[in-house]
Q: What sequence folds into this?
């Protein structure tokens, strides 16, 4: 295996970074402490078992009214010291923006937050996510170096000289068939140079010639999670003001 080369990389985050797992913590799964600026993630089953019947009914009826009611009931329980340690899964520091959103939100979507991938020692950054980011950066770098942009026309991706900042001009239809779903793969293969003649002379991606196929990145060491609010903005303003609550790595984390 002497032909393999290994490197130890240190990445410094230039902004808060969130890599989602697809999970959501609903409003009844956590309680914030506005004084210590922390959020306690809860095991609702353990919490219910610790409460007397009348409080169980009160909490469940509040949860049934919606996310706002659930949060109000949990905060009351927390302030009265009725949430035992065994009902707290873990505690995470939170930004002022996160706590402010939780305090003011009335919509369920604004009270859900998305966690980072977790190990027993804390959240980590998956190597596959870093590799995907590097691949995207290299694709764009390649276009910038060529001074070209990629346009989908006449059924295939083609290069043309950029009339400003290089960009990718996508097809004007939503992919439905299997052939159309391969368009993204063909784009990467075109830019990175591993599109080869296939059966019948039609170009196909040769994955064995993909320059990133030989690159493997391990997951990062566990880091510190931090609950934050992330604004999302669409170039045309269609998502203006949309906010996600998420567990992130802090800006400057290494």
A:
């Amino acid at each position: 295996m002497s032909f393999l080369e290994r490197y130890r990389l240190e990445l410094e985050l230039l902004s808060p970074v969130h890599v989602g797992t697809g999970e959501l913590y609903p409003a009844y799964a956590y309680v914030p402490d506005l004084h210590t600026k922390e959020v306690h993630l809860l095991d609702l089953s353990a919490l219910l078992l610790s409460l007397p019947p009348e409080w169980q009914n009160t909490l469940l009826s509040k949860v049934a009214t919606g996310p706002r009611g659930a949060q109000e009931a949990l905060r009351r329980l927390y302030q009265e010291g009725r949430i035992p340690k065994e009902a707290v899964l873990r505690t995470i520091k939170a930004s002022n923006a996160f706590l402010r959103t939780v305090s003011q939100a009335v919509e369920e979507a604004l009270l859900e937050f998305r966690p980072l991938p977790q190990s027993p020692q804390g959240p980590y950054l998956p190597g596959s996510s870093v590799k995907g980011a590097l691949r995207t950066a290299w694709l764009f770098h390649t276009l910038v170096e060529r001074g070209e942009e990629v346009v989908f026309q006449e059924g295939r991706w083609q290069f043309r000289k950029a009339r400003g900042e290089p960009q990718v001009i996508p097809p004007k239809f939503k992919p439905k068939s299997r052939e159309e779903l391969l368009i993204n793969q063909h784009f990467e293969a075109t830019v990175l140079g591993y599109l080869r003649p296939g059966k019948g002379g039609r170009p196909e991606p040769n994955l064995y010639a993909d320059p990133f196929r030989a690159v493997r990145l391990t997951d990062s060491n566990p880091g510190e999670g931090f609950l934050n609010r992330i604004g999302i903005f669409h170039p045309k303003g269609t998502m203006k003001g949309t906010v996600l609550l998420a567990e992130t790595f802090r800006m400057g984390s290494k």
